Amino acid sequence: MSAVSLQGIDISYGSVDVVRNLDLDIRSGEFVVFVGPSGCGKSTTLRLIAGLEEGRSGQISIGERIVNDVDPAKRDVAMVFQNYALFPHMSVADNISFGMRLRGEAKEKIQSGVADVARMVGLADHLHKRPGALSGGQRQRVALARAIVRKPAVFLFDEPLSNLDAEFRAAMRYELSRLHRELGSTMIYVTHDQVEAMTMGDRIAVLAPLKQAGRSNLMQFGTPEEVYHRPANLFVAKFIGSPPMNFFEGHANGATISIGTLGFPGASHLPADLTVGIRPEHVGLGTGEGPFVAGTVDGVENLGHEKLWFLATEQGRVVARTSGAVSHAVGDRIRVHFATDKIHLFDRATGERVEV
Amino acid sequence: MSRSASSRHALWPYAVALVAVVISLFPIYWILTIALKNRVDAFAMPPVWLFSPVWENFGKAWSSTGFSGAFFNSLVVCAIGNVLALAAGIPAAYYLNRKHVPGRRTILIWLLISYMLPEFLFIVPMYVLFQSVGLYDTVIGLALIYQVFTLPFTIWLLRAFFADIPEALAEAARLEGASTLRIIWTIYVPIAAPGIAATVILNSIKMWNELTIALALTFEKAQTVTLAVAGFRGYASIDWGAMSAASIIIILPMALFAILAQRRIVQGLSLGAVK
Q1: Cα nearest neighbour of A143 on chain B
Q2: Which of A61, A103, B11, B38 has the most CB atoms around its CB within 10 Å?
C-alpha cells in the first residue's frame, strides 16, 4: 500500500507531446481510474508509473520513494495488461509463479502462494492448463493472479476488461472492486469506458488529448459524483454520461440566462456567452416544472426500465431520459421541460465551469 | 451438380503439383537408378527400365577415400554454423524488433543486401585472410564464413517470428525482474521454437549443399560432402555408379531431416502461429 504522486510529468514520442504538465496525487489504498478517449495519454501515464515508459521531465514517487530512476521490477508495482500478456508456453501455475521463480523463492512458498491466489480468483482447477485452453475471462484471472501473488504496493491495470464480452465485464468489474476492498492496495486503472470509471473508481482522473486539452491533459480529478454532477469543464461534461448531456448556446444578461426564448435564473457575475448543459434525465416531457419549449417526438429507444427520447425543438435536438412508463408516439407535439436547478453553465470562451 | 463442378475445380491444382513433383524428383530418380545399376546398364541407350538393383556402389562410395570424413565434416560445419547463427541471430532479431533501435532500418537493409551478395565475392579476400590466421581448411573456418549468408537469413526469419510475439510479454517479464537475456531465453526462444527449428533446417540445407566456398577455402582435412561427390571425377575416368550412390547418401540426411521436421517447418513458416 503506497501513495503514488506524479508532479509536472511531460511525455513525448519523438517530437509529439503526449502528456504535458500532469500533476496527480493518488492516496494510499485508493482505487483511481484514468479515463479518456484514445490518445489522451492514460495508458502512457500508467506505463510511466510502471517504468515501461520514460518521461521527458517530472517526478514520479511511489510511497516515500522517487522512482524515476528505479528499475521497473524494483518499483513494487504489478501490472495487468489489456491482452493479458500471459506466457503461452507455460502452465497457469508457472505463469502465476514466474516472478517468484525468477527471484529464487522457496518451492513451498511458491506452491502455497500460487494455491492461495488461485483460490482467490477461482482458478484452483485450472493450474495445470495452458493459457490457450482457457476462456478470455479465465485468462484475465490468471493475469490478475500473477499480479496479486507479488503483493505489490500498487496495482496497475491497462484496460484489462476491454477484450471480454459484456456479461463477463460486469462480473469482473464487481470482482475487481471486491479484490480492492480485500487487499486494500492502491490500484490505478486505465479505461476508455466511463461505466467502468464510474462504477469502480474511488476517484476518476478524466484526461483529454493534448490538442483539446491545452496546458495539461488532466481535465478533472474527483469522485464519480463530482465528475458526473459537477463536471469541471465542457470536455468532462461531454465525455461523462451516456447518452451525453444536451448543450445549448446561452446568454447571460443581468440576472437571467436566456436560451432562445427560454429564461433561467442567473447571476450578474456570469460571462455573457455561455454554454448551457443539461443531462437527459433532467429533461421532462409533457408535464413538469421550469421553463419549457415545444417539441416533436422524433424517435424513442425503449430500454425497458427507461426510455430515451429524441426530440426536435426550436432549440435543436434534445435527448431526454424518462422511466419506462412514460408513453408518447413518434410525431407527438409535447412540452419539453428543463429542470432549472439542474443546469450546468460553462464559459463559452474557455470551456470552464461557472457557478451561478 | 455443384459437387461435380467443385471437384473439377479442385483437380487442376493437383495436376499442376503432380507435374512439378515429377519434374523435380526425376533427376533424383535418375541418379538413384544409376547408383543401383551395374556399369553396363547405367549407360545403355535406350535406358534399361527394368534391372535387378546392385548395392555395391553404396558400399564403394562410403568406403572411398575421404567420403565418410567429408560426411562427418559437413555435419560438424552445420552444427557449428547453426550454433553461431542462432547465438548471434536470436539476440539481434530480438533487438531489431524493438521500436527504438537507432539505425534499425539501415541495419535491416544492409542485412538483406549482404544476403543477396554472390558468395564468391568473399572467396578471394577470405582465402588470403584464412591462410594467414590458420582458418584455411578447417571446419570452424567454414562455419564462420558461412555466416555471411546464414546470419542475415537467420536474423530476417527470426525477426518475423519474434514480431508475432506481443511486446507485452516481454514487458510483463521485465516487471517481474527478468533481464533481457532471460526474457529472450525463457519467453522468446520457447515460443518461437517452431520458427527456430525451421530456421535451423533451412540453414542446414544451405550449408550442407554449399560448394563454391568449400571448394576455395578447404583442401583436404575440412572437405565437405559436395566436394567429396565431385571427387569421384578422377583424372582418367569418372566412377558414375559410386558418384551417384554418394549423391544419394548426401541427400538422405537433409531429406530425412525435412520429413521428420515437416510439421515444425509448416508450423513455423505459417505466420501468426504463436499467437
Answers
A1: B172
A2: A61
